[in-house]
Amino acid sequence: MNSQYEVNYQSHHEGAASLDYQDMDLAGQDLRGLDLRGANLSGANLERADLRDANLTRANLSQSILERADLRGAILIRANLSGASLISADLKGANFTRANMSDTLLDQAQMMDTIFKDALLTRSSLWQTMLTRANLSRANLSEANLEGSVMIGVNLWLAILSRANLRKTNLTGASLVACDLSESILVDADLTGANFSRANMAGADLGNLTLNETNFSRVILSCANVRMVKFDDAKMTKAVMPDGGTY
């Protein structure tokens, strides 16, 4: 029985508990729309696999290879993708709510309109990703690398980005209300029209920011590095400045 036939057969005829594809080579396979809830795909090779609209709720994809895979519209709620590689994967419209994606590689992935609500993305690499309109509300991205990513209109409400690298990111129109950005790096970032109201940016490196109609109301900038930053074009109502004073 070839690997693709086996996956298709088991997903339609057997219970989720029996879906064990650990370390299996499924590279390039057509797995569109399959019910893979709870499946064990840890260590599996899914490079270039077609997983559009597949249901991978609570699936174990830890240490799996999903590079250049197509996961558009896939459901990965509470899935375990820790240590997985999704470099250059297409994740547009996929749902990763409460997924474990710690130490995951997502470099240059396409993640427009993708949902990451309450997801764990600590220490993950999202270098030069496309995150336009993605929902990362309450996600934990502490120590994540987002350098050079396009994050236009992204929702980061109450997200944790402490010690994250956001150098040269485009956050135009993004919502970072009450976000934890303590000790993060935002050097050369574009914050045009972004809302940082009540965000914690204590100890952050904010050198050479682009601020145009940016909302910094009640932002905490204690001990932040604000060299070359001009706050004239930002809304600074009751913002706590690096010296401890209020703007």
TrEMBL record:
Domain of life, source organism: Bacteria
Q: Which Gene3D superfamilies match?
A: E3 ubiquitin-protein ligase SopA
Alphabetized InterPro entries for the sequence: 5peptide_repeat (IPR001646), Pentapeptide-BTB/POZ_domain (IPR051082)
What SUPFAM superfamilies has UniProt attached to this entry?
Answer: Pentapeptide repeat-like
Report the protein name in the record: Pentapeptide repeat-containing protein
Q: Which organism is it from?
A: Lyngbya confervoides BDU141951
